[in-house]
Amino acid sequence: MTTIRHIALAALLATSSVAFAAQELVTNGSLTGPITNNGVPTGWSIFEGTPDIMDATDNVGLLNTLRFGATPTASTDGGTWVGLGSYGTYMERFGQTLSGLTVGQQYTVSWEAGNFGYTYGSINYLGSNAISVQVDGVTVGSGAQLDLGSNWYKQSLTFTAGAASQQLSFILASTTSKAYMSIDGVSVKATPAVPEPGTWALMGLGLFGVMAATRRKA
Question: Residue 3 has what pLDDT?
Answer without folding.
Answer: 54
